[in-house]
Amino acid sequence: MTCDMNYNEDQRQILDAANALLNTSYPLSRLQEEKPDDLTALAEFGAFALALPEERGGTGFTIVEEALVHGLLGRHLISSRALANPIAARLAARLGRHEIAEQVAAGTLSVCAAVPADDSLLLIDGAKATLGVVFGGRQVILIALEELPREGVPGLGHSVVLSRVRGPLSMIGECTDSSLLDTSDLLVTAQLLGIAEASRDMAVSYAKVREQFGRSIGSFQAIKHHCANMSVDAEALSALLDMAAIAVRDERGDAAFQVAALRLLAPRVAFANVRTCIQIHGGIGFSAEADAHHYLKQVHVLRQLLSGNTMLDLPAPLAPYTSINERN
Amino acid sequence: MTCDMNYNEDQRQILDAANALLNTSYPLSRLQEEKPDDLTALAEFGAFALALPEERGGTGFTIVEEALVHGLLGRHLISSRALANPIAARLAARLGRHEIAEQVAAGTLSVCAAVPADDSLLLIDGAKATLGVVFGGRQVILIALEELPREGVPGLGHSVVLSRVRGPLSMIGECTDSSLLDTSDLLVTAQLLGIAEASRDMAVSYAKVREQFGRSIGSFQAIKHHCANMSVDAEALSALLDMAAIAVRDERGDAAFQVAALRLLAPRVAFANVRTCIQIHGGIGFSAEADAHHYLKQVHVLRQLLSGNTMLDLPAPLAPYTSINERN
Amino acid sequence: MQLDFTQDDEAFRVSAREWLLANAPRKRGPLDGQSARAFAQAWLSQCHKDGWSGIGWPKEYGGRGLPTEKIILWYEEYVRARAPSVLDCTFVSLNHAGPTLIACGTDEQKAYHLRRILVGDSIWCQGFSEPGSGSDLASLTTTGLVDGDHLVVNGQKIWTSYADIADFQELLIRTEPGSKRHKGLSWVICDMKSEGITVRPIKNMAGATHFAQVFYDNVRIPLSNVVGMLHDGWRVAMTTLGFERKTAAMGLQLELSIKIEDLIALAECPPGSAIGKQLAELRAEAAALRAMTYRTLFKDPVTASDGSLMRLYFAELSQRIHRAAMDILGADALTDSTWTHDYLESYSETIAGGTAEIQRNIIAERILGLPREQPA
Amino acid sequence: MQLDFTQDDEAFRVSAREWLLANAPRKRGPLDGQSARAFAQAWLSQCHKDGWSGIGWPKEYGGRGLPTEKIILWYEEYVRARAPSVLDCTFVSLNHAGPTLIACGTDEQKAYHLRRILVGDSIWCQGFSEPGSGSDLASLTTTGLVDGDHLVVNGQKIWTSYADIADFQELLIRTEPGSKRHKGLSWVICDMKSEGITVRPIKNMAGATHFAQVFYDNVRIPLSNVVGMLHDGWRVAMTTLGFERKTAAMGLQLELSIKIEDLIALAECPPGSAIGKQLAELRAEAAALRAMTYRTLFKDPVTASDGSLMRLYFAELSQRIHRAAMDILGADALTDSTWTHDYLESYSETIAGGTAEIQRNIIAERILGLPREQPA
Predict the structure, then answer these.
(1) How far apart are CA A171 and CA A116, in angstroms?
(2) Which of A222, A299, C228, D286 is 20 to 30 A from B136 in CA distance terms?
(3) Is there a contact between C274 and D277 if contact means CB atoms under 8 Å apart?
(4) D270 touches chain C (CB under 8 A)
(5) Are D129 and D221 contained in the same domain?
(6) In which family does this protein belong, per the annotation (chains C, D) (predicted)?
(7) Would you place residue D376 in the very low, low, confident or very high pLDDT band (cuts 50, 70, 90)?
């Protein structure tokens, strides 16, 4: 078959392996400890070198498998450093800084994501990072952080870990090339999809066991329909992500269009699902004791890493041949 | 009591009387005949002279009671000529054309609503009207129609009755004064509220009697929650309408603000309720045999008669004394 | 995961495109009645003449037996060329009755009907819904009692599209007296010219009269018209679901991608404007629907609940697109036009074939495993 | 229908405004713990000193017995001056416990508690919800067994706001063994310093710790602390609903009008922009909420279902306003600030005090008369 939207055997294997690693080394329960994620196990697994050519230390997979793995990273609420890392590696390679690219891919240089806020930069979970990737609309910038003084900043709900840096930045280089931005957005939206699916699953599981009025709340149509809505949106987003990942991998003409669609849809779906997940959990969902709120906060983080909306600037892959006026 | 949001005795009486008239002379079942409404009975009731001073043939009520009555006209899907009429009367009076104003209020001159469409005017249910009120954004224009040739135009779903006129118009006068536009919008939104409430009531009644899966569909939570949503929105809109009507009557400083809020909210609520009403009715709701679709089409007509959005141009009646920066 | 079209596929795409641009009617056909029938038949006949009818049907039954890739390309080219809506009066025969006969019919039934369907000679309608069983199909009560070598049918059906112009009907009836729910039903071929059938057309809110109520008063149908086993009609009705959910829905789903492009062309969208934001979101959703459509095509088997996911997404997106059109049209929203007609028709999307509420129940119960609704 | 404020009303408004602008703290108080208690007590004590505590309470109990008009004006001025949130740790005592004691308490209970509440000397919390009965309050199982002239309480409560800093609790318990649903409950005053009480604070998703789980291990409460009749606690709990739904909610509801104005000031809204459209709609909804609030104030009686209508509209509007703020904030949405904190807190609006789903059930069943949910 020349077309097939199902996962192939290799894809199933890498997903199974990544899942096993994540369940062992990064269970959600770790979040209660409020410690920064140690990404060593992921780096050793090769998660940051997935799409690198094998001669550069990569595992020979493609952006498709990398996106699938990032879906799992989203599910497991892995620090956004795991996103900054593959973007930094690609950016460094484009800048001809291959020594940086290789160290980053191997996980020996710590990279964090950063976003501009007024006259400063907010580093996300970057207290100890040596490099930063600034996600600033339609460009990404690689900066050196080693010598910059960081000021701790209380983050959203006291659980997003932030620090602020000011003053002249030590810029390694920047990139405004759409293809890198599309790759970046693909990985970010893959994580958003992971969150959208995980919050659906968490809500459904809870709805099956939580009882009110003498029966499981999942037997109430309002809850059922909430869950159905979460499923439909996650399914649509997931199909779109697969389509976009294939298009990016194969450098198809519609790659930019598909990623633009993802960029709009993914944060919306992830937000809606996380909100519904919290609502279905009731009081416990609003507490810091359930994990639902961590998904919410991560969605807020991830959406800041998406580049700008280009949805109406791109030709559609499926457009009419004649204008509607010609037809009627 | 100096403040009271309940209807007083006079208001209850006029509503009861109008309701009795409408039930007798304008039952919804008349719509199956697809004939233009004869507004004589309403004119004789004084519906078009409600807010006129008594010395001019009015009944001495105010815009508040007029708005309440227009809520009932909306419920009964009375032709939009019943809206064009009181606006034409007010506009003629402002233009010093008192003879026109009096004939219109008495119902002896027929007036229709008109909206600009490209280089022509669409008359709504105006096949025999002698005057037209053009609702064109932030102005209303009174035109004479007698000598204009009209071309029949198929209307929305073949049930909105339209005709088109072209060429130079015989303009009697125009008005861009906000107070007249606010009065007009108040009556239009009152009709939209009437539709929002009527479609809620129609949906609830049907949900109680229609059975599927061995029980009334109103016992399913999805249907219940649809109905609850219709109620909440209609209740909010209704409270806002009362607030705005009082403000317009008493020439309060916040009248324009309240009407601006109505202008945004009323079509949205009416649409949502009518859509839900159709959905709850299932197949029969989609057919032309139930009345739900008439509500839908009337909402489309009424929204065209609303003047432009001014919501963010007006000061709020309840605004902070200090900016948030001063506070923190 | 791959979407690699071969050179052969691309050549097929070009031939489909060229044929469609040269042959597809330039104007929308009539909405209902005999003129709609004539228009649809002429178009299908023209398709058939050049080998474009039943492209997914097996070759042995007169189709072209094309693989999924080429069917995708056909429908993509079909909607891009603005060929007539797939949801015309040939929809049921091509996408539902035909495939059911192929799967469950006798040789005689196949021999008689399949070619007529492909050529456009016979028009079919569907007799499933009843006044008391809209969303609850299994509660249907129209009966067929065996009398010699015939079934004698009494009862009524409703929301039967094109009943007034159809030659045959796929009719689901309760043949086992006293049976409950899904049991004891049969799927039979009903000749619409049979004595005892009365068709009462019902006008819809868009002003078109393409559905009807059908009354059966001692209608005699030969037992040889039963498709599959007697009393086994539910299973027969379910066999085409996969086909229906894959191929048949494709044309409708892809058409939304065209509609949103038309809407973007129609609207003036300054960057950052409210309408621009809305259209961008709708365009993104149409892209997602297309991706879902393709994903489903390669899924095996496609379950009823997969269908519900896609159906629900499609229906609500279609309604949103059409509502946005009404906002963009301004005063023209009051006139009858292709946009306003389609807008009104779109209200049926969340009702026909199982309401949105039923689809959500199916998703919640069958995919997510939430507890079943408690019966009364 | 009229909204005519008298000269006397207007003079009152001016005096309220001047006092608030001169006295209301310029900064938001601490969120939780003893410092939040100290802040709230200092503010209430200041209000009381100048006659602004319990303005709606009857004069005989230390209030000012002001009519509805003046209470409206007070809350309007209160939110405009950005005085401290009414939903601090004095909310339950002023708006719930106090009015309940006024309506149902004994002379001794009133004499002991009411003045302490008005002055800010005693802080109350509410002990209604339990782990197994969140939205289903009537299923509560914490028991109080009569033992001589005491009740012996065992069980647990959850989502009790400010339990860690409260002096007293309004505690709803099952005092009639074996009773079901609303029957056999009692409303008692529980001294939070009683032996056998353990408070486990629970951090919420906004990082504040203002609610808690409370465990009762053979806690002895004098029978003289029962408010109303023994076993008649449900009725007692319901008496304050009217008050709560009228006056208490007003401050919160009107505060949204201020928040939307702040948001409009914060955002840059070019005409026709997507964000401008959204803010215009939110502003219109806030205006509608204000109108609903006023309407409800003049309604008599205010039923539970009136409360549900308003509660639901308020809750969802509040969440939409706060979500819009997050969009507008851009990268600042990642930092902890008044806006982001309030945004996270807003998630409780559709959960606390009966979820949005429960409110919709109440509206559908009690206002619209749709059939009751079938019990399991």
Answers:
(1) 14
(2) D286
(3) yes
(4) yes
(5) yes
(6) Belongs to the acyl-CoA dehydrogenase family.
(7) very low
Query: Which contiguous run of DSSP H or E holds residue A117?
Result: strand A111-117
- The H or E element spanning position B301 is helix B292-304
Handedness of CA B174, B177, B180, B185 (dihedral sign): positive
CATH of the domain at D157: 2.40.110.10
A213 to chain B, minimum CA–CA distance in Å?
14
Asked if the structure places residue C115 within a domain, the reply is no
Cβ–Cβ below 8 Å for C283 and A323: no
Domain shared by D152 and D189, yes or no: yes
- What's the rounded Cα separation, in Å, for the pair B46 and D153? 68
Does residue A221 sit at the B interface (CB-CB below 8 Å)?
A: yes
The neighbours of chain A, by the rule of 3 or more Cβ pairs under 8 Å, are: B, C, D
C358 interaction partners in chain B (CB closer than 8 Å): none
Q: Per residue in B193-224, pLDDT tens?
A: 999 999 999 999 999 999 988 899 999 999 99
For A221, name the nearest residue in chain B, comparing CA atoms only: B221
The two structure tokens encoding residue A149? 């003084």
Q: Chain C neighbours among B 277-296 (CB < 8 Å)? A: 278-279, 282-283, 285-289, 292-293, 296
How far D300 CA sits from the closest chain A CA (Å)? Answer: 31
Same domain, D351 and D283: yes
pLDDT digits (tens, 9 = 90+) for A206-245: 999 999 888 999 999 999 999 999 999 999 999 999 999 9
Do C188 and C301 have their domain in common? no
**D348 has a pLDDT exceeding 90:** yes
The distance between the two most distant Cα atoms of chain B, rounded to a whole number of Å, is: 66
- List domains and CATH numbers for chain A: 9-176 (1.10.540.10), 179-313 (1.20.140.10)
Cβ–Cβ of A279/D129 closer than 8 Å?
Answer: no
**B225 touching chain C per CB within 8 A:** no
Q: Which residue, among B220, B235, B268, B325, would best test binding to D if mutated, counting the most D CBs under 10 Å from its CB?
A: B235
Bridge-based pairing state of the strands A120-124 and A111-117: antiparallel
N-terminal to C-terminal alpha carbon distance within chain A = 39
Contact A222 B222 (CB under 8 A): yes
Three-state SS at A224 = helix
Residues D164 and D269 in one domain: no
On whether the CB atoms of residues D265 and B324 are closer than 8 A, the answer is: yes
Q: How far apart, in whole angstroms, are the C-alpha atoms of residue D72 and residue D10?
A: 11
**Neighbouring chains to B with at least 3 Cβ pairs closer than 8 Å:** A, C, D
CB contact under 8 A, C332 and B117: yes
Asked whether the beta carbons of D289 and D251 are under 8 A apart, the reply is no
Mean per-residue pLDDT for C319-335? Answer: 97
Which range is most confident: B30-39, B260-269, C235-244? B260-269
A19: left (phi over 0), alpha (psi -120 to 50) or beta: alpha
The shortest CB-CB distance from A258 to any of C287, C289, C369 is to C287
- Taking CA atoms, A280 is separated from A220, C368, D128, D218, in Å, by 11, 15, 20, 33
* Same-domain status, D40 and D82: yes
Determine the distance in angstroms separating the CA of B7 from the nearest CA of chain C, rounded to an integer: 36
- Residue D84 counted as domain residue: yes
Assign residue D256 the CATH number of its domain: 1.20.140.10
Residue B3 has pLDDT above 90, yes or no: no
Which residues of chain B have a CB within 8 Å of the CB of A222?
221-222, 225
- Name the closest residue on chain C to residue A319, using Cα atoms: C258
CA torsion, ordered B162, B163, B165, B170, to nearest 10 deg: -80
The closest of A85, A67, A63 to A249, measured between CA atoms, is A63
* B132-177 per-position pLDDT tens digit: 999 988 999 999 998 788 999 999 998 899 999 997 889 999 999 9
Chains in touch with C (≥3 Cβ pairs < 8 A): A, B, D
